[in-house]
Amino acid sequence: MKAKAAILEEFKKPLVIRYVDIPPLLEGGILVKMVSSGICGSDIHMVDGEDPRVPVPIILGHEGVGEIVEINGDKRDLNGEILKKGDLIIWNRGVVCGECYFCKVLKMPYLCENRKIYGINRSFKEYPHLSGAFAEFIILEEKTEILRLSPNTDPNVIVMAGCSGATAVHAIDALEDNLLDKTVVVQGGGPLGIFALSLAKFQGAKNTILITGSSFRKEIAEKIGIDMILDRNTSAEERLNKILDITYGRGADVVIEATGTNKAVPEGLRFLRKGGTYIIAGVASPQEKVPIDFYEVSSKNITIKGVWVSDAEHFKKAVSFVEKHQDLFATLITHKISLDEINYGLDLVRERKAGKVVITY
Ligand SMILES: [Zn+2]
Ligand SMILES: [Zn+2]
């Protein structure tokens, strides 16, 4: 049997559609027929060769939902339920070792030194070759963390819980205080930013504010009920004043970077009140450096916190949050395309002309 796959053979080049042999399963392996996958903003950096984790050739795609075709052995999902053929499942993109210092002693598995990520650092040259979501089939290894989905879950909507959703949960969980009565600013209106703001809203934040330059994304944020949307094309002064106006001149309690670029950081720090927290969640590849005013950091007693990917708990929370609010997250999907149209889909994301782009199989 063969599977159609979109392969990145060379950086900065379009993906190439090829037919690939499906190899036999190892002990604990699961063959999954893809139902839906999502294009993530970070896929663009990977195609461009800007993510040091990515080898070529590779099948990209780290957000996926699919149906189990075959399991070699017994496997339970994160709820302890036995998985079987025909189950609709979603999986955690990262597989951790459970043995290293970060997994075992610090209990921060998102920092695992041996973390293997579907569609990110698994070469197409290595078994099982089908290790990314941009193919008709994917083979999951034994240690993969899986959740069985109820049959009335929309695969195209739930798919975003796997990466941006789980990372957004990590960003919110990284805050020491709860968000009741707080003002939360998110820079960047992609799925990560919208997800983080939705979480803040449902946790009782008083003001949720989005900074974005995309009219497309503004519309999505409006539909979702974000309290204030500030245009990135206005002056920095204007944006700051609007935030100061609704916070009695103090500034935001929390600012979350979800743009994917270092350039957002200096402005984000200015938005914060004294004692506020700045979370960097979107920057996922090395970037040109930007100057930061450390006097601003010390004199305002600011906490700056990096958030790297996510773990099983963040993943599970994100899946249940999306399952519960499927109608809300459905509004993020602007394009459903086929695997053959993947390069078009990547262009849409690159040019920020889309909300969420999903591939249906
Ligand atoms: Zn991603
Ligand atoms: Zn580890």
Number of separate structural domains: 2
CATH superfamily of the largest domain: Medium-chain alcohol dehydrogenases, catalytic domain
Q: What is the CATH architecture annotation of the largest domain?
A: Alpha-Beta Complex
- How many helices? 12
Q: Please summarize the sheet with the most strands.
A: 7 strands, mixed
Number of strands: 17
Kindly state the percentage of residues in helix. Answer: 25-40%
The CATH class of the largest domain, by name, is Alpha Beta
Domain Alcohol dehydrogenase-like N-terminal: 28-144
Enzyme class: oxidoreductase
EC number: 1.1.1.-
Organism: Dictyoglomus thermophilum (strain ATCC 35947 / DSM 3960 / H-6-12)
Structural commentary:
The chain has 361 residues and is an alpha/beta fold. It has 2 domains: 2-163 and 310-360, Quinone Oxidoreductase, Chain A, domain 1 (Alpha-Beta Complex), CATH 3.90.180.10; 168-306, NAD(P)-binding Rossmann-like Domain (Rossmann fold, 3-Layer(aba) Sandwich), CATH 3.40.50. The protein is built from 12 helices and 17 strands. It has helices at residues 41-47, 101-104, 155-158, 164-173, 191-202, 215-224, 236-245, 265-271, 294-299, 312-324, 326-330, 342-350; strands spanning 2-7, 16-21, 30-39, 64-71, 88-91, 94-95, 116-117, 137-140, 146-148, 183-187, 207-212, 228-231, 252-257, 272-280, 303-306, 333-337, 356-360. The strands form 4 sheets. Strands 3, 4, 5, 8, 9, 16 and 17 form a 7-stranded mixed sheet that branches. A 6-stranded parallel sheet has the order 12-11-10-13-14-15, sandwiched between helices. The protein has a two-stranded antiparallel ribbon with strand order 1-2. α12 links the parallel β16 (333-337) and β17 (356-360). α4 crosses α10. The longest helix is centred in the C-terminal third of the chain and has 13 residues, at 312-324. The radius of gyration is 20 Å and the shape is globular. The mean pLDDT is 96. The structure holds zinc ion (ZN) (2 copies). Residues 40, 42, 62, 163 line the site of one zinc ion. One zinc ion binds next to α2.
